[in-house]
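Quick one, tokens below:
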């Protein structure tokens, strides 16, 4: 499954080293996001996830930005957290998608 990354945030301050990712699960015919998932966690820990069925994901992105998450791209994510997609596969996220 190819992942559609809408936003990736990384927060590394002091001993904190976390990522927060917004993945697009479904778009409407105008390319707007209608269903998305947020995935978050400390690098090396079990990732957590939640699925949303609405169009206003910008609020969630803005909240993470205010909390100190810096936007990064997929290439940077692969550098700071190379195991992200493997850890995501281990998480309950895949079961939620099928359910």
């Amino acid at each position: 499954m190819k992942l559609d990354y809408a936003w990736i945030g990384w927060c590394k301050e002091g001993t904190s080293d976390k990522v927060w990712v917004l993945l697009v699960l479904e778009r409407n015919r105008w390319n707007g996001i209608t269903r998305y998932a947020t995935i978050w966690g400390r690098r090396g820990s079990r990732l957590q996830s939640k699925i949303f069925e609405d169009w206003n994901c910008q609020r969630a992105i803005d909240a993470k930005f205010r909390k100190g998450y810096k936007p990064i791209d997929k290439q940077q994510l692969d550098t700071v957290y190379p195991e992200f997609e493997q850890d995501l596969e281990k998480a309950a996220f895949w079961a939620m998608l099928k359910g």
